[in-house]
Specification:
Layout: E1 2-7, H1 20-28, E2 33-35, E3 58-62, H2 73-89, E4 93-98, H3 109-122, E5 125-128, H4 131-140, E6 147-149, E7 167-172, H5 181-191, E8 199-202, H6 208-215, E9 222-225, H7 231-239, E10 241-245, H8 257-262, E11 268-272, H9 275-279, E12 286-289, H10 295-303, H11 311-320, H12 323-334
Parallel strand pairs: 1-2, 1-3, 3-4, 4-5, 5-6, 7-8, 7-10, 8-9, 10-11, 11-12
Helix pairs in contact: 1-12, 2-3
Amino acid sequence: MNKAYIYPLSARYKEGGHNPYLENFMDSISSDFEFVNRYTPSSSGVFNIVNYILSVKYVFFHWPEDIPERKFGLIQTIGFFILIPILKLRKIKIIYIVHNKISHTNKRYLVKKNISKTLIRQSFLIITHSKEGVSFINSLAKRNKSIFCFPHPVDNEKVFMKTPKEIDILIWGNIAPYKGVHRFLEVLQQRGKDTDWNIVIAGKVSSKSYFDQLKTFNLKNLKILNEFLDNSRLNDLISKSKIVLFPYHKKSILSSGAFARTIVFPVEIIGPDCGAFLDFSYLNNVNTFQDESLILDLVEEKLFSNTKIEHEKLAEIAKKYSWKSFGEAFISEVLPN
């Protein structure tokens, strides 16, 4: 069994309450990797890695570009740049999972970019969930890197059947400014296109100020569910929607857990022409936009179209890109026989 450390696991969460992605990630490779900090999350950030530096063979970094904005961000960042050469000296293999091209906020942008660049150059292996991620990694690496590219695993291997539609447009997930929800609502209001459209925004809004901003839009049939949704509720909302919209700004996006969660449903999906959205745009029901100004026209077109959903292809994707398949492929890549 290979002992490994996974970052970040915060002490603010109880067991089972971490980011679902991290839980699925650890479960998928648990046959060959023991995550030494899985049940002892810490509030000391990157400094907690030092406690395990004599016992682990691998360190997995997820979202390290956000370190400068975490608690004691400046100190954490300094600690990060001291830690990397120590890990290299100890011959500990660094595995960097590149979720985004850059952090979703511009605060301390250059520092964040330097963190990503450093890890790309110092990692033993880099994981990305989109073809664009490969290009991004190669643009920052000084030499050829070992890159494992696998689409964001699908949470549910079940393909949902078509149900009667009650929601015209659903936007769901962690509702944060970088996802462009406010920009979409602003254009919608300016163009007066909301008269007959039932729009639902579902998911915990990132801050009270952003929630207050969203509530300022005077749209007739807009419903905002500012709450965490369980799987059953979420499945019901997606199934009843004609369109699931991801009005993201493509500057930072490479992959999306919400998109991977939605792809097994027989609904129209609209997202930016980048990363995972572009990779799966060969599907009849996955539609991409080059510019945010084109979203509304694309939404209007798809609301009144009758796209044939290719259930066989969705079933193939659900099986081929499951968490089980990810784990098997990853272990084969990292631990060849």
